[in-house]
Amino acid sequence: MRSLKIITFIISLFCFVSESMAQEVMKVSLDDIIALAQKQAPSVQLAKTKLSNNYWRYQSTLANYKPQMVLDGQIPNLQRSSFQTTLPTGQQSFIRQASLGSSLGLQLRQDLALTGGSVFAGTGLSYLRNFELSGVAASNQFFSDIIYVGLEQPIFGFNQLKYEKELAPVQYSEATREYAEEMESIAMQGAALFFDIFSAQLNLEATQKNKINADSLFEISKGRFSVGRIAETDLLQIELSAMNANANLASALLNKQTSSEALRNFLGIKDVVAFDLTPPTKLPDYQLDKERAVQLSENNRSQSFEFQRRLLQADAQMARAKAETGIQANLFARFGLSRNAASTVTQAYKSPTDDEQINLGIQIPIADWGKSKARLQIAESDRNLEQLNIEQERINIEQEVRLKVQQFDLVRQQVALALRAYEVSQKREDITRKRYLIGKVDVTELNLALRAMDEGRRSYIAALQNFWLAHYEMRGLTLFDFVNERSLVKSD
């Protein structure tokens, strides 16, 4: 027994020294921990980066539906080479060429989400200088596209632009809800770690008190044993209780240090700190309505926008399959004014001629042995299956929210009951201890009172933790702050 005392004392001393090495004591509440976690926890930075990526992806998609202006050119384009050509006589010959060219063009293009095509307009100027070669004099030529407009339009084809335009805002709304949900998940993790330390803190305070009381009882019992008022078995039991109190104290110190390290790592705090927690005993006063909670969940959660996205993607696949089963046609039309073979820039913009170009390409499937029909049937079946899955998932989410609302009311009631039970157990332990000191009860009844008090404390802490975790869980399920009556979703 003496060796056990020494071991437990060494463990207690080690834990105490480790605890005292903390450079700073942070006195914080649950709200402080949540705010700190949502501000600087490493997982928050990941969530913010993911949201930022989705934001710029959304902006990039929106930019596709705005006019795109492109300036392109070749300055210079120098050629000195020989090439094979066919002479007017029909003979093949190698001819030497030496030229310097340059070109500059400006084009404005607008994609049309309504039709899936695009319109364009532009202008351009090209210059070519042929160097003197084989007795042929040097020459300068200019070619100008004074103005041109055109249209590119697929007919009967799949309109990718239309579905991308519908899909982009839904995807970004889904991303903002996912970010809000991740923030509430971080709040729940912070609350769980807070209560780990809070439980360890209360257990440490209780074990410290129990150790003092156990040592006092042991000293008193030794005096009683010496005068024959208690049996040796009772004295041995009390001595064992004192030794257990030492071991429990060492364990409580170690548990608090371990839980503190877990919270510190979660918050991303690099300095060694000790947490002094303010208990969140005051519960927020609000009532949950099942129908309102279901509606908030349906309006705010990322799953609602996920369902929209999945249906749009299924619709797009079905539309693509339909478009690929019939006639495919593409229309290209261009009209412009141009001037070529001008010797100066000024002449290049005088007396222009008109240019027209119209192309209509057609592809008609003759026989594919049912491949297109099968592809369409698969797309329709996938779309129907997705619809059924989404409907079932909606029902599951609604049932989950209703159940959580019902459980929330019960959890709130359990906190009050657990607190009253803890207060009663404390009073019982105090009365029993006083009665033991005057010899009215034996050590067995005292130990029962101590165990009841410890159990009452643990039950109260567990009830308090369950309430706050349920509180943050409801925030995550609805993305709504019921205390301040405001949405938790970042503005789209």
Radius of gyration using CA atoms only: 41 Å
Distance between the termini: 67 Å
Please list the strands of the largest sheet in the order they lie side by side: 2-3-4-5-7-8
CATH-assigned homologous superfamily of the domain at 1-68 and 161-280: Outer membrane efflux proteins (OEP)
Kindly name the structural category.
Answer: alpha+beta
Helicity level, as a percent range? 55-70%
CATH class of the domain at 1-68 and 161-280: Mainly Alpha
Described by strand count, sense and barrel closure, the largest sheet is: 6 strands, antiparallel
Number of helices: 9
Q: Report the uncertain regions.
A: 1-22
Give a short synopsis of this structure.
With 492 residues, this protein is of the alpha+beta class. It is built from nine helices and ten strands.
Helices and strands in order, then pairings?
Layout: H1 2-20, E1 24-28, H2 30-40, H3 42-63, E2 68-86, E3 92-111, E4 118-130, E5 139-155, H4 160-226, H5 232-267, E6 273-277, H6 290-300, H7 302-323, E7 328-342, E8 353-363, H8 371-437, H9 443-478, E9 480-481, E10 486-487
Parallel strand pairs: 1-6
Antiparallel strand pairs: 2-3, 3-4, 4-5, 5-7, 7-8, 9-10
Notes on the protein architecture:
With about 500 residues, the chain is an alpha+beta fold. Among the domains are: about 1-70 and about 160-280, Outer membrane efflux proteins (OEP) (Up-down Bundle); about 280-325 and about 375-480, Outer membrane efflux proteins (OEP), CATH 1.20.1600. Helices cover about 60% and strands about 20% of the residues. The protein has 9 helices and 10 strands. It has helices at about 1-20, 30-40, 40-65, 160-225, 230-265, 290-300, 300-325, 370-435, 445-480, and strands spanning about 25-30, 70-85, 90-110, 120-130, 140-155, 275, 330-340, 355-365, 480, 485. A 6-stranded antiparallel β-sheet has the order 2-3-4-5-7-8, with no helix packed on it. A two-stranded parallel ribbon has the order 1-6. Strands 9-10 form a two-stranded antiparallel sheet. The longest helix is centred in the middle third of the chain and has 67 residues, at about 160-225. It starts with a helix and ends in a 5-residue tail after the last strand. Mean pLDDT is about 85; it is low at about 1-20.
